Amino acid sequence: MRNLLMKVNYDGTTYDGFQTQPQGNTIQDRLEEAILHLTGEDLKIHASGRTDAGVHAYGQPFNFITSSQIPLERWCLALNARLPQDIVVTEAREVPLSFHSRRSAKRKTYRYTINANQFPDPFQRRWQLHHPGILDVSAMQQGLTHLLGTHDFTSFASRHSTKTSHVRTIYEAHMEVDTSMCRPNPRDQGVIHVFITGSGFLQHMVRIIMGTLINVGQGKCPADKVAHILAACDRGAAGPTAVANGLTLWSVEYEEADYKKAD
Amino acid sequence: MRNLLMKVNYDGTTYDGFQTQPQGNTIQDRLEEAILHLTGEDLKIHASGRTDAGVHAYGQPFNFITSSQIPLERWCLALNARLPQDIVVTEAREVPLSFHSRRSAKRKTYRYTINANQFPDPFQRRWQLHHPGILDVSAMQQGLTHLLGTHDFTSFASRHSTKTSHVRTIYEAHMEVDTSMCRPNPRDQGVIHVFITGSGFLQHMVRIIMGTLINVGQGKCPADKVAHILAACDRGAAGPTAVANGLTLWSVEYEEADYKKAD
């Protein structure tokens, strides 16, 4: 028996999120079908976490226990040949049997992307929120800093969250503005990427943070009010939930000791 | 009557190229329908040139003569509201009645993109040729330089070309390698963009140049042989026609005097 840790990239546009659900077309379903087709094993994979419908991932880890003898270096190509083109497995390694993609995860990073140019980009639109109005990026950056550290993030969690604790830690957060695709036009502000790294994220947490930051960028909410919104522990205090398609699970980090297989 | 020059971006994946054709689903059809819907005018637009089925464009110019009174600054939004999401009009300006997008064009630039990483990229796959094997980029660059200048490009034209002259000028050509999405893996070579600027291009010309350069990159053909292929004036001497989806019409340039409206 081996415990295999893999990484998968997917364009989540047409999927109902990662995790299997009734009548859902999910990434997990497609991966488990590909594994069944390849090995004959009808098994369950463990992911680093759920993603919402329409959310994307670059390098989302998942693991599973297999008795297949297929050599490690053959797995990616063999699975990709059995997956739709919008799901691509890029890495496979053997890890200790105790390793679990979600329980062993130490840090997760999400990226949220806003196209702040005047017109939508037909090439990148599937993973961008289009916001044609000018945004005050430095105010948004200032708002973001209020979220750093360990807090109760109830204001930034879905009302449907079933977690007993809403305390999470945000380790890092920063913004990048890519102006390479701007026309020489003051109404093209660039593509804004927001990266947020934390211990874990509540349901809709990044999207509600983004809805709130966009309010800040539009001048509807002063940057310093983000601290008050956080302190309120009230979902009603924060901004709207930004659309799912702008969100990409960007990386998941583990302790080397947890996934390094002792040979 | 006004002559309006516009620029359009499109993801050509699902279209049969730019130009109207029987039973075709083309960019021109969608643009003319949007104009008809907006103005009631059943008119023909003039493009800077054709693009093949599956080819994309960033800023492809087209123009048309209209008697509509719609102010210039309203056209883009109004047309985009009537276009599919994968076609976006980004600029509109009035030009002299003598201006014609194709006949007035002085320089055109195409970009061809090769994903030379081990695995396909689910986000960018629609506008990339995936070539997982290692390519010798400096040999490709050397091969490309043999095409600079004015030559008979019969070797790099479709056998179905109906042009009386195959003499064209390539003004500039260069390659860029983007390694930002590479994994720490020697089998990820990056995303290779090839930019070629010329006076005009024959049918399939950029795609046949690319098929030939890929042969060079694979070591199947020495870089210096590109000069002999060019001199042969024989389509059979060159490499295969690279797939359409890697190709994007990148820019079309005009003389300022030709499109600047004398007020």
Fourth-level CATH superfamily of the largest domain in chain A:
Pseudouridine synthase I, catalytic domain, C-terminal subdomain
* Spans of at least 5 consecutive residues with low confidence of chain A: none
What is the CA–CA distance across the termini of chain A? 15 Å
Biggest chain contact: A-B, 23 and 23 residues
Integer tally of domains of chain A: 2
Task: Please state the average pLDDT score of chain A.
Answer: 95
CATH class of the largest domain in chain A: Alpha Beta
Tell how many strands the DSSP assignment of chain A holds.
10
Helicity range of chain A: 10-25%
Q: Tell me about the biggest sheet of chain A?
A: 10 strands, mixed
How would you describe this structure to a colleague?
2 copies of one chain form a homodimer. Chain A has 263 residues and is α+β, with helices and mostly antiparallel strands. Chain A folds into 2 domains: 2-103, 2-Layer Sandwich (Alpha-Beta Plaits); 106-250, Pseudouridine synthase I, catalytic domain, C-terminal subdomain (Alpha-Beta Plaits, 2-Layer Sandwich). Chain A is 20% helix and 29% strand. Chain A is built from 6 helices and 10 strands, in the order E-H-E-E-H-E-E-E-H-E-E-E-H-H-E-H. Chain A has helices at residues 27-39, 75-80, 137-145, 205-217, 225-232, 256-259; strands at residues 2-10, 46-47, 56-66, 87-95, 105-115, 129-130, 149-152, 167-178, 191-198, 247-254. In chain A, strands 1, 2, 3, 4, 5, 6, 7, 8, 9 and 10 form a 10-stranded mixed β-sheet that branches. In chain A, strand 2 and strand 3 form a beta hairpin. In chain A, helix 3 (137-145) packs across helix 4. Chain A is globular, with a radius of gyration of 20 Å. The first copy, chain A, starts with a strand and ends with a helix. The model of chain A has no long low-confidence stretch (mean pLDDT 95). The interface between A and B is medium-sized, with 23 and 23 residues. Chains A, B: Belongs to the tRNA pseudouridine synthase TruA family. Chains A, B: It is an enzyme of class 5 (isomerase). Chains A, B: InterPro entries: PsdUridine_synth_cat_dom_sf, PsdUridine_synth_TruA, PsdUridine_synth_TruA_a/b_dom, PsdUridine_synth_TruA_C, TruA/RsuA/RluB/E/F_N. Chains A, B: This is tRNA pseudouridine synthase A. Chains A, B: Keywords: Isomerase, tRNA processing.
